[in-house]
Amino acid sequence: MLHLKRQLPYRPTERMNVVSYPIRDIVMEAKREEAKGKKMIYLNIGDPPQYGFEPFQVIADRVKSALDEPWKGYAPSEGDEDLRKNVAKIEKCSPEDVFAVAGLTEGIDFFFHAFIGFGEKVLLPNPVYPLYLSKAKQFEGDSVFYRHDADGQIDVANLSRKIEGAKAMVIINPNNPLGSVYSEKNLLEVIKLCAEYDVPIFYDGSYDQLILEGRQVDFRKIARNKVPFIYGSSLSKDFSYPGARIGWVAFHGDRWSEVKNAFFLLCNQRLSVNWEYQKAAAAAIVDPSFQSYVSAMRKKLIERRDTFIRMARKLPLSFPVPQGAFYAFMKIESPKWKKDLAFVRAALKEGVVFVPGSGFGRQEDGVYFRSTFLPEPHIIEEAFSKIKRLL
Ligand SMILES: Cc1ncc(COP(=O)(O)O)c(C=O)c1O
Q: Which of 284, 314, 337 is the last residue of a domain?
């Protein structure tokens, strides 16, 4: 009889085989260690409030006042009017070119969904923020990777060998995981190449205010009218408010009308993004006190980065010095380790959580891992003292 037969667990779809997020996947293993009583230092995730960075106060204040407003319905699918208007001011585009998304995560999902079809070539940085790998697989695009030089700049010669026939190129600047900030010269060379091969750019500006060294280059200014691009950012990193889940994308150039229609459909089918936080984002991104907020954040990040570099340089590790964002991508120069996951698991046993380099698509030429330098200097020092004997 059917009801007496042992029932097997339900199986997820085949599609799930390509879904992964190594930055969080490793946490499950860390939690098991923690449950055994081990104290863990989490250097795997770029979550500023976890390490004492206060979110930009204007956001919370505006959310509170929005809660007292009578509106309790869905926000417009494509985004709140004020948010679109204020993003457009910064982007120097029309509000119709702007879409609000639930964190840039959703913007990246929509970009692949709307623009990268089966077998279509998308140029991704190597190493790359893992979501891009996962989305390219999910939408069956053909990921092709461009390299960086030892200073973390885009290797233009390498890119020029791969660019032909690409549907789009992704640029993440400042870069996660490398922490590199591309120079104006480097970006201009890339723009020239993309224009020559007619390749539009998806520009991930999640960390665009977090430049720790050198001059900030406004990509929009140098790319406008040269190459079509989509510029994305969010409240998560620059404003230290990842929990808000608010991001935006802006289309630049006059060839996007059909892709914008596709974005409309994708926005419509998920109804809307949280209304109160969109109102808060609209206020925050044009608030004059943001500049002093972000310069205090940069100062703190520089101190933490410098501690991180000082500690890392005592060990057999090589890496481009992070000039932006809050990550370093480390190559292990000690022959002890052949597999990144083996090292990351050993570090976990010592009480420190990193992400293996293979999670960022990098493993073919060495053993890599990524660390954030967000924690306070004494925690960074403690983490290094725990792992030094492994190297
Ligand atoms: C390069 C990059 N892009 C996009 C995101 C997604 O961020 P959010 O969805 O919180 O805006 C992240 C998050 O870590 C990131 O590092």
A: 284
Q: Which residues line ligand 1 (CB under 6 A)?
A: 46, 103-105, 129, 172, 176, 204, 206, 234, 236, 242, 247
- Tell whether 78 and 219 lie within a shared domain: yes
Report the helix count and the strand count for the chain, using DSSP H and E.
Answer: 13, 13
Query: 128 and 145 share a domain?
Result: yes
For residue 311, report the distance from its CA to the centre of ligand 1, in Å.
27
Q: Which residues of the chain have pLDDT under 50?
A: none
Domains in the chain, number:
2
Say which CATH number the domain at 101 has.
Answer: 3.40.640.10
- Domain shared by 150 and 257, yes or no: yes
Cα 242 to averaged position of ligand 1 atoms, centre (Å): 9
| Dihedral angle, C-alpha 123, 321, 233, 157, nearest 10 ° | -20
Q: List the 121-125 sheet strands across, edge first.
A: 98-101, 247-252, 229-234, 201-204, 168-172, 121-125, 142-146
Ligand 1 mean position, distance from CA 112 (Å): 15
Supply the pLDDT for residue 2.
57
C-alpha 102 – ligand 1 centre gap (Å): 11
Pocket test for ligand 1, best of 50, 101, 131, 133 (most atoms within 8 A of CB): 131
Give the tens place of pLDDT for each residue, 285-299.
Answer: 999 999 999 999 999
Residue 341's domain comprises 18-53+291-390
- DSSP code for 320: P
> What pLDDT shows up at residue 4?
63
Residue 353 domain-assigned? yes
